[in-house]
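User: I'm writing a short methods note and want a consistent example. For CGNR zinc finger domain-containing protein, I'll paste the sequence; you return only the structure tokens, no commentary, since I'll be parsing the reply automatically.
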Amino acid sequence: MKVSFSDYAWGAGLATDLVNTSPLVWKSAGEMLTGPDDLTAFLDEHGLPGATPTDTDLRQVHRLRDDLRTVLEAGTEDETAAGANALIARGTTAPVLERDSEHRWQWYLTTPTGAPLTTQLAVATGTGLLGTLRTLGHARFRPCASPTCDGVFVDTSRAGRRRYCMPELCGNRVNVARHRARRQTGTGSAARHR
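Assistant:
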């Protein structure tokens, strides 16, 4: 696998999404990666097709997910950098400078041919986390703002105002709860139009 330093948003998004498959995030949903087929679907969704994970790969990915959460929750920039560097050190060779598809020079990290799936994921996510830390800062590593979620995420958006680990889920649930609360108290638009 070859990971570009420039594409840190992809690696940070991969880290966020992987961490948030844990049963610690949405306790009512439980484990999101229950078997190799779930892991295969996750990898396909994130542009890593072709892998045929085993039960051993799944257990290793669960451990990697815990390590990633520790990095995302690190209290300081130095702790975040150390954790992300440790992820990369699991299986990368020295950085290489190569031309990309548009003939621009780019820095890449590569994993050895045949490296285990978790090694590839560790390098991809570690690179994304370091790129985010360097480019956007430690303030972009956040807990989810939803009171019913224990997720964490890396905000790589341009504006940097993201509040939820899964905006389409956590954000919508918060908005629905607020809407229902307004309707119950009679302050919502439905109450004004009566």
